[in-house]
Amino acid sequence: MENRIIKAAREVFIDKGFAETSMSEIATVVGINRPALHYYFRTKDKMFQAVFGSIVSSVMPKVFDALTHREMGIAQRVEGIIDAYYTLFLENPRLPMFMLRELNRDSDLLIKTIQQFNVMDTARKALASVQDEMNEGKLKKVSLQFVFYNFYSLLTFPFLTKDISTKVFQKDDKDFLAMLSEWKQNIIAQMENLLEVR
Asked: How confident is the model at residue 195 (pLDDT cuts 50, 70, 90)?
């Protein structure tokens, strides 16, 4: 039942955002009454944390694993990270907009949720590993924040603008998937240019 609730809540939160989602609405989607829902999740914050935690825990281990595989080249590592996100985003196309909206709404709640899933420690270790490679001269010395901005803007923008871009360029879902494949190669090339020592 808890998994059913999280799955339903995930769909409603992604569709409407935290502020516009009610516990009653989630209970209705699950097919239970509100007191039964409260048995599993006392507050909307707790439910949101469970939903966001399930999203984070589904993708971040793959991301951190790719970041710390120092024996692999930049292209392979970036491709592994992109593939992990593309899988998640194609299953949940509105997820990037949800993340952007929630980051602006309450970044403290997101950080608190991430901390509960021990992601912050793993993230710091992964980033320290990348920084070590920069210090050792294996990667170009670039601000990690700059790397973050470059990668995530390239990764998410096609999903954030899918509705308008498909209309402007008269494309359909099949064309979007083909474009993503090409776009992935562009992201890899951009990150190689940013980080690879030549």
From this structure: very high
**H-assigned helices in the chain:** 2-16, 23-30, 34-40, 44-68, 74-91, 95-105, 107-116, 119-135, 144-160, 162-168, 173-195
d(CA 147, CA 156): 14
pTM: 0.86
- Give the relative orientation of helices 74-91 and 44-68 as an angle to the nearest 10 degrees: 150
Angle, vertex CA 75, rays to CA 89 and CA 186, nearest 5: 60
Dihedral angle of Cα 49, 52, 58, 63, to the nearest 10 degrees = -110
The answer, yes or no, to whether residue 182 has pLDDT greater than 80, is yes
Q: Record the tokens describing residue 93, joined without a space.
A: 């196309």
Query: What's the pLDDT tens digit per position in 29-76?
Result: 999 999 999 999 999 988 988 888 888 888 888 888 888 888 889 999
**Coil vs helix vs strand at 196:** strand
How many angstroms separate the CA atoms of 91 and 28, rounded?
23
